[in-house]
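Students often ask why we bother encoding 3D structure as a string. The short answer is that it lets us treat folding as translation between two languages. Here is a chain of 182 residues written in the first language.
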Amino acid sequence: MKTRFRTRGPKTLEQRASVVAANVWRIAQNTCRRMEQEGYPLGSDSQVAALMAELMAFLVQVADRLVYGKLPEEDRARFINALGGQLARLFQDNLSESHGPGDYHRPFIQTLNERLSDYAEFAFAEQGPSYACLRYLGEKASEAMATTDNRWVLERVIDVEAPELYKLIKRLIHEVLGLSLE
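And here it is in the second language, the structure alphabet:
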């Protein structure tokens, strides 16, 4: 993860959100690659994009939960909105490049908003997301990979990928925002 700024001086929440977004994008890409290397074929580019959208939505909601109570409410809202907006731009730019011209921004924002609403229903403790939350991510990942042999995707996501995602986003938020998350 790249969490160092090239320039000195104070950074805005929006600049910090941009750094977090770039890393969230990389984390989602690396998770997809790792799953393929471990024998979970992703199939088409559309499936990769759908899985990445699910992984990024999960990471955004975890980031939101981690900063809750650590940042003033107005700052938290600014940070999460900037993070979502930057991820939508990355999604648009990368999918336009790989899939051709199109509106990828709006469906991503719609998925993100739906998932944030859904994830809000799940418990989140000091040790991280609840099992129900991880299972929901696993179900969404499994749906994204529905046309492949995804029999064990749910278990893989719950047991392997989600704990790693949580560890990475927690470290990222700590390093970029300087928040104590212990």
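Translate back mentally: Residues 33 and 77 are 31 Å apart (CA to CA). Keep this in mind for the problem set.
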